[in-house]
Amino acid sequence: MHILERTRDTGQQVKFGREERVQNMDDAFRVLPKKKLPAGRFVVIDDVLTTGATLSACATALRIGGASHIDAATIAHG
Q1: Predicted model pTM
Q2: SS3 of 49, please?
């Protein structure tokens, strides 16, 4: 089930340092309009964890949308 959507193109993060990544991801995701979050736990999955900026931005959007329990999973660490 897709709950989040990207609000703008953030491009590849590979060329950015930590602070630039965090700034680039600021407000980059939101809960889909008219989507009511179901009760329960949410898991955000990212392919590579480097600074955690993408996971953090997704978790922030979920919290704003009303989620209280959010876990994260990644495939690789960069």
Answers
A1: 0.87
A2: strand
